Amino acid sequence: MPKIKRIYLDHAATTPVDPVVFAKIRPYFSEKFGNPMSVHSFGQEAMAAVDQARVQVAYFLRCQPKEIVFTSGATESNNLAIRGTLKAYQAKKENQGVIPHIITTQFEHHCVLNTCQELEKEGQIEVTYLSVYADGLVRLADVKRALKSNTILVSVMYVNNEIGTVQPIVEIGQLLREAHSVERIARNSKRSTFRDTRSKILFHTDATQAVNYFDCDVNKLDVDLLSLSGHKIYGPKGVGALFIRDKSAITHVQSGGDQEAGMRAGTHNVPGIVGMAEAIRQIKSSKSKVKNNEILKLRNYLIKKVLKEIPKSHLNGSLDQRSPNNANFRFDDVEGEGLILSLDMEGVAASTGSACSSGSLDPSHVLLALGLKHEQAHGSLRLTLGKSTTKQEIEYAVKILKKIVSRLRKISGDVLKEFK
Amino acid sequence: MPKIKRIYLDHAATTPVDPVVFAKIRPYFSEKFGNPMSVHSFGQEAMAAVDQARVQVAYFLRCQPKEIVFTSGATESNNLAIRGTLKAYQAKKENQGVIPHIITTQFEHHCVLNTCQELEKEGQIEVTYLSVYADGLVRLADVKRALKSNTILVSVMYVNNEIGTVQPIVEIGQLLREAHSVERIARNSKRSTFRDTRSKILFHTDATQAVNYFDCDVNKLDVDLLSLSGHKIYGPKGVGALFIRDKSAITHVQSGGDQEAGMRAGTHNVPGIVGMAEAIRQIKSSKSKVKNNEILKLRNYLIKKVLKEIPKSHLNGSLDQRSPNNANFRFDDVEGEGLILSLDMEGVAASTGSACSSGSLDPSHVLLALGLKHEQAHGSLRLTLGKSTTKQEIEYAVKILKKIVSRLRKISGDVLKEFK
Hints:
The structure is a homodimer.
Chain A: E1 7-8, H1 19-25, H2 27-30, H3 41-61, E2 68-71, H4 74-91, E3 101-105, H5 110-121, E4 126-130, H6 140-146, E5 151-155, H7 169-190, E6 202-206, H8 218-221, E7 225-229, E8 240-244, H9 270-283, H10 286-309, E9 313-315, E10 326-331, H11 336-345, E11 348-349, H12 365-369, H13 374-377, E12 380-384, H14 391-419
Parallel strand pairs in A: 1-11, 3-4, 3-5, 5-6, 6-7
Antiparallel strand pairs in A: 2-8, 7-8, 9-10, 10-12
């Protein structure tokens, strides 16, 4: 096998910009550089590009272009979805003094989880954090049980960023619609002179890790809010979007100019927006479908090989309900951080979990939510494949991984012996 | 004179990315594409670039690298400065029940003004909006008079985005420091057993339009918070920064991952950050100083020529205390919007004021703040020069402007006659 220099198996953290995408955004730096809000031709040229990008994103989500708000990334989108829903709720006179209720899961990305926890700590909301089971999935019955009369928002991620498990978004969407209908009928029948117009509980999904591989038709999913990011789909960093079905249900959180119909102030990141839209357009191509199938096969090969060749290795989360590019292992008696560093020295880029909290020494909150013990949650390895991943790379990565796990186990064994 | 195709005189709205800057950011899209928060080599390579950019920005502002927080633009920086100060204040137990006071000016950019107005409307703060005088400047005496015992923040822009006037930032900074010392001594002398540790009133300046031309040494300016943007300085769109002297005085407003020491969650826009830093580095070059001098000369030539050749034309705001690239005129009996559109048809890109509110039909809040009447504030023309502006372009622009003003006056004259 020829020497492989660097193998990137961390596509859930970020992806390289596709050369086709880069070619598309290039003119928007120094040539078509206008501010889309300017009325002159330079501005109109830039706005035309933003408008076209909006149509492309909307086409992918099967929504109206006006329902798309461009942001600086999924973190901002998720903050806007939650904080914006709360602000709109609080602004209504009839809601004054009411503490609304939000339902989310224990293993959301930190940008959802921390937002909920902070608002909860500030006394602005109450939150139910849904349990996640060993398969890495939430249960519909738990969502149903968590619903309260003051619930205003349910936020459940489409695909988990660490273990790649796919949540039952369609089913939750349906449940919320039915719950709303039933309740409205019940309430209306009690008071015949009063037609209940209470708003539906909003349903938000963070689809950041889903866009590459899963259907994001917002009507099929029955979501009111959906977040996505450019840099996870071979588009640029610094750009994201939020689908908002009903803008009257959301208040902006960043104030300023009139951009994005008042939903998000700040000069449009034109190359970013154009790039994210082009990346999304690429996902729909037949070439991309073939690629995704290859990724799935390679990923299955990787999982099989690791579980077979490395003793005491385990897959975290369901294999079936899982993003085709994600593998997340744990190895008994091996600490994840040391594993990652050793892999990196051998040219294999992997991660223990979310890059966003890699600075933290805490065990993965995702794996803890699955019911793993602290030492197990510390020993995880996430390998996420991408468009460029080859079988040769997988072969090499497993070979190296096997060697390292064995060496680390030997070291920890030796250390334990010394203490005896 | 040869035919000039398109002349861009709207550099206050946005600037093209400098080819040197573009060359610098190019590798960060598809090659050095790592997520800076990843621990492996791809991530470290990206983080090294972010770190170096932070050093470059800090060098320009004469502060510590750790005092720089990267954002998605000046709008986010300004929101963070104001909302973050308020959040940190509200989080302290001793401040519960106290409505803090913020001082700003009537002619701030909308991202400061709207933020203050919205927080005021929500009952979270009280605000003093300082008057601006006909010269486009605030007065130190007004700042002093506005100070109250519950004042926590003063936010005054360095250079106004519409009329380019330069505010007395150094003097305001000094005033606030002195006011703080005097008050502390007075309070401490009264209660000898109690050492007053009340925080200094924070001083924020939006330096977005100043960075190209003015000294942004945060110690000379005596500011605690300073906002800047990439795309106004020949860097990319979608990136900005906030200087924060004391991070304990600010609470983040966007929650999520551990980026930016917890001050701003969300994956770093690596090419954007690298590009903004390179753009800032270019400003310090001697070539840039020569360029700025040329811009000043051209701008003065433009103002002189317009005021001389076009009857009933006026310059809005002080000529002396003004950014070297800004000219803002009004022409009696001429409506600004028509002027801009006519100029655009002749290939000259100009604006009536801020691009961020170009969708609005309201007269410029900046010009109203200067004491102009509604019809005067509707008739403004902002011409902002840049590095590429030539004398030939200025000659052509004035020629066209003269023709258009005359034509528009004739039309409005004819219309008036018909009504007689």
